[in-house]
Fold this sequence. Notes:
This protein is of the alpha/beta class.
Amino acid sequence: MGLSFSQTSHGLPCILQAERAECGLACLAMIAGYYGHRVDLNTLRHEYPVSSHGASLKELLRIADGLQLHSRALRVEMEELASVQTPAILHWDLDHFVVLRALGQRHAWVHDPASGERRYTLAELGRHFTGVAIECVPGQDFRAQHRQRRSRLRELFTAFPGFYGSVLQLFALSLLIQLAGIGAAFHLQLVIDESISKADADLLTVLSLGFGLLMLIRVGMSFLRGTVQMYFTNLLGFQMAGNVMNHLMRLPVDFFLKRHVGDLVSRFSAVQEIRRLLSEDMITAALDGLMAVLGFGVLVLFNARLALIVLLFVFFTMLLKLGVLVPMRTRSEQMLVAEARAGSTFMESLRSMEMLKFYCRELPRIWTWRHQLAEQMNAGVQLRRLSLRVEAGFGLLAGLEYILVLHLAATQVLAGQISLGVMSAFLALRSQFSSSVTSFIDKLVQLRLMGLQLERVSDITCAETEFADFRLPETRGASPCSLSLENVSFSYAGERQALLQDLSLHIEAGEVVALVGESGSGKSTLLKLLGGLLPPSAGVLRVNGESLSAEGLRAHRASCAGVLQTDQLLSGTLRENIVLYADEVDEQRLQQAARMAGVDEFVESLPMGYRSLVGDMGASLSAGQAQRILLARAFYAGAGLLLLDEATANLDAALETHVLQSVSSLGVTTVMITHRAAPLQIASRVLLCHGGRVRELPKESFREQG
């Protein structure tokens, strides 16, 4: 039997995962939120790091205990699932976790961290459910609370010169435009009551000229407001996007390893939506609110009874809009996540096109993308369907209000209580008032939904950076450096077993060291540790005898160069790729680096030479040519520490020998990973990585191990 626990008044939130393998964390966040502990994934991710391979059942139980939730894992059949206390976590498709919200006679309602709220038939549920469930209920020390790591608006931008002046100008111009619109209603009343009723053609001419001039002024102010808003919006958007990009580029490497590219692009794009809401909707909302108050005051002056009826319908409209705020937010988030997932698949397909064609797997990839596109479309349909219902409700309320107000106003005209001109002016003002109120409510809802965009951007801006700024030493040191590892261990976040364990190693300045070992033994990870790309989980890395601190991280990287497994060419010229967009280019050093990499003859044979364009994936170059360009990049840097991860794997024997001679002639500290024999010939030492440890091989076994 399942645990028995009383229902709470808290609804079950739907929290979508940001990283590939944090579905378990998202499920626990949902259940904690259901019982009153509202915590976001940024907070949980910081407190309970999860491996890139995901969390195990045991780890979920441990995290639940940390959240003061009493939990237990159950093995249940489909027939017994009704006895499980909901909400409960279900193991899904052997590699995923979801939350079972409720189970009915024919359907089950599930919150999926990957795709949002779903409804399944019991047969569909049985095909996904693996038979393992986790029940969670509050423990004795459980406390309702709200914890959230989210950026605030003021953290995304600072007031640039002219910021407040632009806001004031926009508000003042918008106010004048709205007041001019109110004046148009009085124009209608004066024409009917004073000109037409008294057959005064001269007054009609004066009114037409006067209000025509007012119309021209209004058009001019609209143009001026649009111009000010255009510059203000661009400046605000440029600064906000620049600040987020600045933060993104200071994040550690492992942040990017856990996320899909499409999701990061989607989250970064949320900055533009926030910019639009700030520069357009916030000012409009404030103005519409003010105009609604002023408009209602004018309506009361015209006819208090009719004004109260208009206000009553406005109240009903506001209740309708606020009632759908939560489901609209949920569906908006589901659509954004589905859009990001489809975008990731599309970009991955473009980057893998050669492989897909080689294996003739274009159709399966298209089917995968179509499935994700369908999910995106379905999420959009759900959001649009909700919007249509709200619009229909708006239309119904607006229509009923107009008919009722017109009927009562016409009745008062027939009774001689008001004039026809007053009725016409009241209806025009009522239309403008309703428009202002509707716009005000819409903008408030959009600003409320801005929290969703802030949460998405916060996944970037709340992540801890590696360093405070981009300052570098004035000169990149080319002198060889010594490296020491003292009892260093390393494991990726959330991993149960350390990849490298208690390593102690010393590399002399100018020494050439080769790393060998089977795939997956930690060679590339060790190389990244030496280059400062990954921080040790335990122990100390010393450079020239000094401990490498966070403050010295950038300086150390500035003294390194090399070729790593994930290196690739960027869009631009070959010259730009070799010098990596340096401000000043030493042409002699550029050509020397190309000669050392054995790529000079190839480049000079091209019509544009070093200014030849290359795609962002190096599509116009062979693997060997691209690798030599990457080697030339490393040689041009003139660094004191050279790190090479199978940097000659795509070269023929002659070119490999040439490159290795170039490496040897540099006289800098070099650490290289290899599975080939040739690089071992220039190494002063060969280190074998195995079982998380490193040991030196005797020189006589170099050739054998190679």
